[in-house]
Amino acid sequence: MKVRVFDTSDEMGLAAAKLFAERIRSKPDIVLGLATGSTPVRMYDALVRVAKEDELDLSRVVTFNLDEYIGLRADHDQSYRYFMNEHLFDKISIPKENTHVPDGMASDLEAMCAAYEEAIEEAGGIDLQLLGIGGNGHIAFNEPGSGADSRTRVVDLTSETIRDNSRFFQDESEVPRQAVTMGIASIMEAQEIVLIADGAHKADAVAKAVEGDISSAVPVSFLQKHPNCIFLLEREAASRLSPGVLE
Ligand code: F6R
């Protein structure tokens, strides 16, 4: 995997946005895999700016989000559908029907997960996947223990993830305990993967991802096997990497 390091989170976000804009320009009907959380906010802000400046045509872009909490309605301000509308979809010219986020309110969650995988396949598969990384090495909500063959499914969140994500809720007790997430295998099928990370609190997980053993104990480490994966890192998040791995 390739690794690039930036002095600031803004520079990291801009680099990711430019990469996405470039890919959209060369394939206007591109299928994007998208992430939520704190890290992509700067990237989405930059993408909105770049799309406006470059008059990027987003009308044929199709998107699939990685995950969604179970039990939060789309209009709940902590649902990932709400996040995506607020930070990206409402600010760019993408038709809403081209955007997909797993439905955490589905009455038959198993059927919804299978339909989500089918929809990705019918769209032609994901061309470019954006990822963040959890402090415990999760990608999407594939918590430690997730297998390389895992696909879109319902998962229990670890207490570490519930604690981490409680910063977005009034109280930790409000954080949903379960989520729907694309699996490791679903993610690994993307043609190209871009992982972004910033902050010293991510340094350990980033080092394990890039230089550690490939193991379900650190799900992000499976990315070492992907043929076209780049990590765009802010300096602090890269601080525990050996100098040899930097481009
Ligand atoms: C969210 C997701 C998660 C986050 C990760 C990092 O869609 O897939 O894996 O990327 O938890 O979150 P932040 O960016 O908030 O540190």
What do these coordinates show?
The chain is of the alpha/beta class and 247 residues long. The chain has one domain: Rossmann fold. The chain has 7 helices and 10 strands. The strands form 2 sheets. The protein has a 7-stranded parallel sheet with strand order 1-10-9-6-2-3-5, covered by helices on one side. The chain has a 3-stranded antiparallel sheet with strand order 4-8-7. The model has no long low-confidence stretch (mean pLDDT 97). The site of fructose -6-phosphate has 13 residues, from loops.
Strand and helix layout:
Blueprint: E1 2-6, H1 9-26, E2 31-34, H2 39-53, E3 62-65, E4 67-69, H3 80-87, E5 99-100, H4 109-122, E6 128-131, E7 153-156, H5 159-165, E8 178-181, H6 184-188, E9 192-197, H7 203-211, E10 229-234
Parallel strand pairs: 1-10, 2-3, 2-6, 3-5, 6-9, 9-10
Antiparallel strand pairs: 4-8, 7-8
Helix pairs in contact: 1-2
The structure holds fructose -6-phosphate.
Fructose -6-phosphate (F6R) binds next to loops.
Strand order of the largest sheet: 1-10-9-6-2-3-5
- What percent of residues adopt helix (DSSP H or I)? 25-40%
Total number of β-strand segments? 10
Cα-to-Cα separation, first versus last residue: 10 Å
> What multimeric state do the chains show?
single chain
The distinct ligands, each listed once, are: fructose -6-phosphate
